[in-house]
Each structure stands twice: as structure tokens, then as C-alpha cells.
Amino acid sequence: MFPVRDRLKAFVKNRWLVFVASMWVESGAGIGYLFGSISPAIKSAMGYNQRQIAILGVAKDLGGSIGLIAGSLCDVLPIWGILFIGAVQNFVGYGLVWLIVSGRLNLPLWVMCIAIFVGTNGETYFNTGALVSCVQNFPKSRGPVVGILKGFVGLSGAILTQIYTMIDASSQSTLIFMIAIGPSMVVIALMFIIRPVDGHKQVRPSDGSSFVYIYSVCLLLAAYLMGVLLLEDVIGLSQSLVTIFTIGLFVILLLPIMIPVWLTLSSSRGGPSEESLLTGDDKSETGNVNEVILSEVEDETPEGVGLLPDAERQKRMAQLQAKLFQAAAEGAVRMRRKKGPRRGEDFTLLQALKKADFWLIFVSLILASGSGLTVIDNLGQMCQSMGYSNTQVFVSMMSIWNFLGRVGGGYFSEVVIRNYAYPRPVTMALVQVIMAMGLFYYAMGWPAAIYIITILIGLGYGAQWAIVPAAISELFGLKSFGVLCNFLGLASPVGSLIFSGVIASGIYDYEAKKQIVASLKLQMITRGYGEDDNDSLSCDGTICYSITCAIMSSLCIIAVILSSIVVYRTRSVYAQLYGTSQICQ
Fold it and tell me: Which of 49, 207, 332, 519 is most buried (CB neighbours < 10 A)?
């Protein structure tokens, strides 16, 4: 029997406990996805027009995506330090926003922009700490781990909205106060648990079942939230029932803790050595030689081999690799020293910036992810223009489908590479097609357009951010994983700055002006577009955003083409990473 102290120590160092704690942190890390709920409150309380709201949205997007500092600090600070900085930024930033919106402070627009930037930037520290820890703890399950964690980021909007509904606050500014307090408290409570714990030494035969259990909880959580959301919207619920359903939500969120508890209690059935991977030292003698040989195989592979059937291609590459091994052993071939890392090896940010694949992924994300973020930021106004008063319902729906997209994207991309050895970016191209379809549907003004765009954009946008980090870790290594992912995160605000801050807001105000002229309210037009007197400018109908969606649909098609180029360029890398293992199995 294991002493209680030893069991407690094993529990604290269990990689599944780190994973579960990271899920809880990420459940409050998607603060930016609530902008669609808080922007109408800010607009009415502060008297802002749509262009000013778009400026705040861009500030929010920049804050949620500029994570280079967080990624760089991972090499200097412990993970708990990264998480603590994020908690402080979240509290200070959104605390100041609440003071301004609630009328306790009277500060200009630029201060509001800085406050939203600082508050939302805190989530980059949450994401960096959780992702870096879990990817290192689960090196052979990157797709599912990233997908699940990113899924909870997307679902956080629906979770926080449900908690806000339970509070039954009379003022919408209370939601901003809850955003400032809630996530910071959760992170501070869990920040010492989330860290690398040599997870590669904790591989168990039951890991597959554990992931199935986590996926089941994810689906249950999404279905539960969707059901509660529909009940609240269609038939309405009393406050006591809302409270009961929210307690049920917390119970579901706690279910994953059963995995580390069960693993700790069952640890006496077998020694640790039976379930540990080989350490890095055991493989160090052959690791460097294999790296060089694999690089040589990539260079020496004849043209046309990549077009052969999988079995034949792997046979040819194995023969070439064997010849290179023999030649190197006999001294007949001198292995070339590489000038820099190759795909699949560890890159620094500067080295990655010199690679065409990295920039193709970045530009593709600007076009597709920027389009998705534009819809998310403007969802509240899109709902109001379509005549829906309860915008929080659609914001929660977006969060739920965003969650399903991230969880499903991580799982589906893993199936594609494990079973077929296709490059992971092929799934990125597929979800970008889904986004283009949703945007085109809304642009055409077809029935139930707001529901269709909410579902398809939520799925597509969410799936991208489960696929991209896993692909980056495979193509550019884990050494600078945090910095590389946070740099790619800049793609969303860059796209949103153009699509939302310029195109969407400009078209919205132009159509609103046309509608005012048509209704013979010319006196409102002659007053101009000042900050203080333009709050009544509003647009009704699908025309407010249909042109914007048509433009973004075309841009998503261009993103599909760029992603397809990445697929073509990286097919040999994925054949080496996953194709050989499939043949051996």
C-alpha cells in the first residue's frame, strides 16, 4: 500500500491533473468572445457610434493576440509567474472598463481602448501557460490536447454568460465586473498546479480511454449549455431554475478531475517503470545521427516519390535511409552540416520567419481568422440589425459552436494524420471552406441567416485555432512553441483591423445613413459624425453586413488556396513523421 503522502505527491505531479486544471483556466480565458455581449452595453452607456465600437473591438483583438511577451517570458519565468501576470492584467484592465461604463469614472475613448487592450491581453498569458505546459506533458497527443484546451477558450463566453444570468443583475455593466473578477480568481487558485511535470514519462495504456472520457464530457457540456440556452430563450426560466442549471454546469466542469483521482488511486497496481517512456538520455546516442539521416533522406528523395502510393513511397524512403546509414558508417559519405533547422526540427522565431511555409500560414490566418473574428466582434450589432433583441443568446451559441469546432478540429486533424499521413494543414483548408460557405449564405440574405453564420463561423473559426498550434509544433518544433503560436495569433487582429475597423464599420454607417435619408430624417445627417451626437445612427436588415460578408467569403477562398499550398509543400514531412509509423504498425 502506498502511504497517503506518496499518493498525494503523485496526484499533484500527475500530468492529467495539470491538463484538467488547464481546462478550468481556459474556461475563463476567452474573455474577448464576450465583446459581442458587452459592446451594446458600452455603446448605450457611453454614447459611442459603430465606428467607435469597432475601434474598441480592434483594441480588444490586439490585446487578445499580441502574446509575444508572454511567449518570451516562458523562457525566463516559471509558469505560475506567467499566469499571475495575466490575472493582474485581466483584473486591472476590465476593472477600469467597469469603472468607466458604470459612471464612476469619466475618461475618454483612448483610455477605454488601453483598458480593454490590457485586460484582454491577460488571456494570452493564460493560453501560453496552459498550452506550453500541456503540450510538453502530452508530446504524442498534441492535436487532442490543443483542441480541447482551445475548445474551452471558445466555450468560456457561454459559461460566463450563464453565470451572469444566474446573478440576475439589473445592469449589464455587472457582466464587465464579473469578467474582471472571475477569471483572475480561478487563475490565482490554480497557477501552482499548471506546469510541466515530465509527462512523457507518464504514458499509460489507459490514456486512450481517458481522452475518450474527456471528449464525452466536452460533448455533454456543449449539449447541456445548448439545451439550457434554448430553454431560456424559447420558454423562459425562473431564477431558481437558472440557478439549478448553473450548479449543474459546475458539476459537469468538475467531472474531468475523476481521471487524475482514479489514476492516483490505482497506481499501486503497477510500478512507475512499467508505464514510463524511455528518457531522453537513453536515446541521445542515436538521436543526432537519426536527425541528420532523416534530413539527408528529405534532400536525396528523387522527384516523383511523393506521388507514389503510401506503401511504395515508404519502401523507397526506407531503402534510401538504410543506404545512407551504411554509407555513413563506412565513411563513404560525409554528412552535410545543416545551415539551419529543417521542417520538423526546432526553430527560433527568427528562423521561422525566413520560411515560406510560416508566412503562408500567417497570411491564410489573416484572411480566414480575421474574417471569423470580425463576425464575432460584430455579432451583437448583426443580431440587432436583424431584429433580435436578446443578443446574448447568439453570443452563447457562437461560443458553443466555437468550442465544438476546436475540440472537433483537434480530433479530426489527428485522425487525418494518424490514419492517412496527410499534412495537418489539409484540415485547415477544409474548415476555411466551411467559413466561406457561412459568410456567403449570410451575404445572400437567405432564411435563418443569423443562425447559419453563427454555427458555421463558430465551427470554422474554432477549428483553425486547434489545428494551427499542433501543425506549428510539428513543422517548427517545441523549443519556441509559445513565441511562434503567439506570433501567429497576431493574424486575427491584423485581419480584424481591416475587415471590422475599416470595411464592416464603414459599410454599416453608410447603409445606416442611406436608411435615415430614406426615412426623411435629414436633420440627423447634417449633425455629422461627432463622438457625442452620433449614437442614434443604426442600420436595419441583412444589407448592413451582407456586402462585408461577401467580401470576407471571397477572402476565405483565397485562404483555402494558401493552405493548400502549405499542404503540398509539407507532404513529405508528414509522410516521414506519421507515414512510417503507420507502415510499421
Answer: 49
**CB of 67 within 8 A of CB of 525?**
no
* Number of neighbours of residue 497 by Cβ within 10 angstroms: 21
Model pLDDT for residues 260-297, shown as the tens digit of each residue: 999 888 865 544 433 333 333 333 333 444 444 444 44
State in Å, rounded, how far the first CA of the chain is from the last one: 37
Q: How confident is the model at residue 313 (pLDDT cuts 50, 70, 90)?
A: low
Alpha-carbon distance of 504 to 374, in angstroms, equals 8
Residues with Cβ < 8 Å from 212, sequence gap 6 or more?
A: none
Give residue 35's identity as a one-letter amino acid code.
F
HEC profile of 534-584: CCCCCCCCCHHHHHHHHHHHHHHHHHHHHHHHHHHHHHHHHHHHHHHHHHH
Q: Cα torsion for 533, 536, 538, 540, to the nearest 10°?
A: -160
Q: Which of 45, 297, 283, 25 shows the shortest CA–CA distance to 150?
A: 25
Report CA dihedral (109, 110, 114, 119) to the nearest 10 degrees.
0
Q: What are phi and psi of 343, to 5 degrees?
A: -55, 135
Distance CA 209, CA 216 (A): 10
Contact at 8 Å (CB) between 34 and 179? yes
In whole angstroms, give the CA distance from residue 455 to residue 154.
Answer: 13
Per-residue HEC secondary structure of 41-84 comes to: HHHHHHCCCHHHHHHHHHHHHHHHHCCHHHHHHCCCCCHHHHHH
72 vs 3, residue with greater confidence: 72
**Contact (CB, 8 A) for 384 and 391:** yes
Residue whose grid cell is 459592446: 39
Among 474, 490, 346, smallest CA distance to 416 is for 474
Helix (H/G/I), strand (E/B), else coil: 229: helix
What φ, ψ does residue 500 adopt, rounded to 5°? Answer: -90, -50
Q: What is the pLDDT of residues 189-219, one digit of tens each?
A: 999 999 988 877 788 888 889 999 999 998 8
Residue 65: predicted pLDDT: 77
Identity of residue 350: L
Q: How far apart are CA 68 and CA 62, in angstroms?
A: 12
C-beta of residue 320 within 8 angstroms of C-beta of residue 301:
yes
Q: Which residue has the cell 437558472?
A: 242
CA torsion 452-454-460-463 (nearest 10°) is -130
Q: Give the pLDDT of residue 283.
A: 39
